[in-house]
Amino acid sequence: MTELPKALYIHIPFCEHICSYCDFPKVLLSSQDPSVYGKVLKDEILSLGIPYDSLDTIYIGGGTPSALPLSQLNDLLSFLHTSFPHVKEFSIEANPESLHEEVAHSFAAYGVNRVSIGVQSLSPALLTSLNRHHDKEKVIEAVEACKREGIGNLNLDFIYGIPGMTREDLKEDIAFALSLAPKHLSFYSLQIEEGTSYFIHKVRSASDDILREQYDYVVSQLAKYGYRRYEVSNFALPGYECQHNLTYWEDRTYYAAGLGASGYIGSIRYNNTRSLNHYLQGKWRLSEEEITPLDHEFEFLMLNLRLTKGFSLSKYSSLFGVDFFERHRKSLPSVKDQLVEKDGNIALKPEYLYTMDETLLRLLEDLPEKA
């Protein structure tokens, strides 16, 4: 019998403004009534047939969940808290300018115990470039509002590789992040995706050399203060790794609901429509794909190698019916210096984590061709 997913992702597409780099499904809050979306979203969640006590994690992302009108936010959180009362990690994303005392109180009242705050940078010039609408004081106020409500498990999101970003900018961002003593930090490299404002205005990405230099600086600085890199872009104090996101990286199944959300149930991966009109009409699902054993092996490698702990060799054999070293005997001579085996796990050495794609491509060459 296939094990049911233990995680649920929920997408809230509404934003008070559109960031220059964002390619997630989003809608200006001023252009829509979010209450209609909320009703349809609850219908979709109910249609998934999730057992009452089966979920370990819920993650509400966006968009900007904290930008919802308080009545709509309370309605959604109350529904989730009542429907799935035994969730261990209940995360929600927020922007500093919309995370005030009342919002933090609602989070805590309905069981949210982890908040991810989008900081991205502190530089006024870079924030303007990103089209972010907060400053240092707003971030501090948001963090303090959460802590006053007893929510101490906080993540702060940052971006490096922003055009014009200097080492001093990055140094100030890291120092500020550390001063707030969050349990978790994420540092993502800027990716300029098609359809974004940056793409339309032909903004150029930072060079590979600059990205690598800035990434190495982040890793080295955070390590000094006890933040353990457990995934390429994610760092946590011991015991505060994001359990929901580990669901993805460990290639486990999960439910998902909302505009443009993607889920994985049994052997089916599905993608929801990015058309708000279609979504509100109840035409949620855009596509479904059955994951073959070969697809599964590909995705397992691609995702698990993002983790510093790698993956269990016995689990690999159990899932795919083949020994890892036997499967990859052709490529191993060329990548063996990049891998480390410890305690029954195989992982990338820390210095090769950033360039994992090169190792992954070699390993994937060993998989049989699809029929």
Description:
With 371 residues, this protein is α/β, with parallel strands linked by helices. The protein has 15 helices and 17 strands. The strands form 4 sheets. Strands 9-10-8-7-6-5-4-1-11 form a 9-stranded mixed β-sheet, with helices on both faces. A 3-stranded antiparallel β-sheet has the order 12-13-14, with no helix packed on it. Strands 15-17-16 form a 3-stranded antiparallel β-sheet. The protein folds into 2 domains: 242 residues, Aldolase class I (TIM Barrel, Alpha-Beta Barrel); 63 residues, no CATH class.
Brief descriptors of the model:
nine-stranded mixed sheet; alpha/beta; 2 domains; 371 residues; TIM Barrel; three-stranded antiparallel sheet; 38% helix
